[in-house]
What does this fold into?
Amino acid sequence: GNSVTQMEGPVTLSEEAFLTINCTYTATGYPSLFWYVQYPGEGLQLLLKATKADDKGSNKGFEATYRKETTSFHLEKGSVQVSDSAVYFCALSYYSSASKIIFGSGTRLSIRP
Amino acid sequence: DTGVSQDPRHKITKRGQNVTFRCDPISEHNRLYWYRQTLGQGPEFLTYFQNEAQLEKSRLLSDRFSAERPKGSFSTLEIQRTEQGDSAMYLCASIGRDTEAFFGQGTRLTVV
It folds into this structure.
């Protein structure tokens, strides 16, 4: 079946450090890939997405590239801020009216000032 | 504000009681999803509606759980005879024409 695996947390970094959170997926065909972010006490928000191979999603300084050859969608940011502290979820879905979103288990990110 | 609203935000109930949660999706979205999230885990799919039709239910959705979406607008999720293992955050999401899901802030259920 389809699944998403992401690196376990927590990840703790200092402000302005470089961030990578790994995500790999198992799926048939060509799913759309997403990163969602969940700030404390809030619901999930879409951070970025990519709908086909080699697409790069980007938002708020975060980037992720859809790599079909390695079935990966790693999240990166060049210089993290304290306000980036949150839980990040990698996910996949298909552009189909009968499709559900499948999530990874989440990676908690904490940024030290 | 994502536009998806859930009510209540928090619910504490005694074991064995019934609870009902409500989700109001973004008005033009025809797809609606319920997910459950426990501490330290990603959201787990429970059920999915396209308009008023319930098209898929997870095996996680035991016979104590029922969901409805009358008239294809708001949805309710009912849990009968609650158990402590039902304690979780229940998330609702709606999707319009593309694959972007908009989530509500969730209903946190605590069964004591």
